[in-house]
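User: quick one - fold this with nicotinamide-adenine-dinucleotide bound?
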Amino acid sequence: MVTNTEVKELGHFINGAIVPGKSGKFSDVYNPSLGTVIARVPIASKEETQQAIATAKAAFPVWRALSVGKRAEIVLKFRQLLTERSDELMELICTESGKTKEDAKGEITRGLESVDLAINAPHLLKGEYSVNVGGNINAYSTKAPLGVVAAISPFNFPVMVPLAITSMAVAVGNSVILKPSERVPCSALFLSELWKEAGLPDGIWTVINGDKDTVNELLESPAIEAISFVGSTPVADYIFATGSKYGKRVTALGGGKNNMIVMPDADLEQVSNAFLGAAYGAASQRCMAISTIIPVGEKTANNLVKVLADKISKLKVGPYTDPEVDFGPVITQHSKDTVIGFIDRSLKEGATIVCDGRNPDIAKDSNGFYLGPTLLDHVKPGMEIYEQEVFGPARNVVRVDTLEEAIELINVHELGNGVTIFTNNGAAARKFTSEIEVGMVGVNVPIPIPVGYHNFAGWKRSRFGEGHMFGPDQVRFFTKTKTISEKWFEEDSESVSTFAFPSNND
Ligand code: NAD
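Assistant: Sure. Structure tokens for the protein plus nicotinamide-adenine-dinucleotide:
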């Protein structure tokens, strides 16, 4: 049984220390497994946000000037501390997000991949050099940090996303301000302690807690050079438009509506096992969760639904303290009500219910925000539950006759985060990978999340701007390139004036 009665008052992390909020405004942080408030997070005022930005700006020149090797040493130390204290961090993630321990552990491991890549900053920051591009001139390029950059993160990965969108930013020499989700601020504050202990100079890592008004302060501040955002599509759209209007470099990753195509030749035992974790893991609160399974052909659909119904009915929902549990609660009561609303309306629109998770047994004895796994069959394009991202365990079956039909369906959807196909037919897989309009694509893998040293981002309205979350593109996003042309005169060299545009014929 999870027990937690103490309500902590949290702060911000500014200039190397936790400071209490001064605005008098707070937001409640819940333990979703119990449905109880565990902390109150301050909502920063305009003045507090401005002060945090000023501190970050003042700290930047010293950090920029430090050798890249020294910076990498600090990131390496941070990585060691993260590993040493991962059990505490796992407990925090579970408490504030409701994830199972196994899932929280996986999240930390994926987050560490981003830190690992950042430790390689000395190698990744190497520029380009050309000797004698003309007239004994050598040309070379360097990658300079931007200055103060802001990262804004969602609730569903309290650690992995903050690590993914800040580690490289720190390593390449920026001052970073993180605005975590107000629903899961404890993990971000814990990361602050580790940066401090690793030896990061004060002011280089800031956590400012708050809501949309705090985000607006960051978007409008002339001192902030870039914004890296991860969250829902409507907010990502807004962040990109507003940040760009204020002249910032912005990348904003949004939501997903991810599909799994099942070809008639696929092994349904493999498919169904892959689907369970990819669809319902973390109570389906993942941007790369599979929302819709698309069996090709009526026979495939009938057989698949039968296998899934049996397996889904055996899934266990409950608190993270029970090691038998497959997934935990959704993040808030509001989230739970929203998912139930989607299911209710889909039934009115003609979907049929294969497994009904609206009222799981655990919900009878607990105030936690629990939903069981729901599977809806005969879902069709145009239905609300098919078109919109549903951030909770209600998943769909959409039946099609051909692979072409499946590809077309996915390509016309406005979101394009992840997609996968299960087949033993190489030609079908090749057609699918080349024609599909989605950013992250899998063949016979349940969730095609790239590893930390590959670029991660969706297409269409799953991403605004050109940057990627983790992967080598982070170096490009968080630096600016300077190209230098350099020539040195010998003592007796002649000098002439030329009015032609310089060319390599000189
Ligand atoms: P959200 O968009 O509600 O919030 C994300 C962040 O934006 C939070 O820090 C929040 O405080 C802030 N915010 C919320 N409303 C705002 C507004 N109107 N103006 C300015 N800032 C605002 O997202 P969430 O509910 O915390 O997270 C779930 C969403 O994130 C899902 O849609 C999920 O798919 C998406 N997500 C995407 C990825 C990806 O890689 N594409 C990864 C994780 C989560």
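One thing worth noting: The chain has 17 helices and 23 strands.
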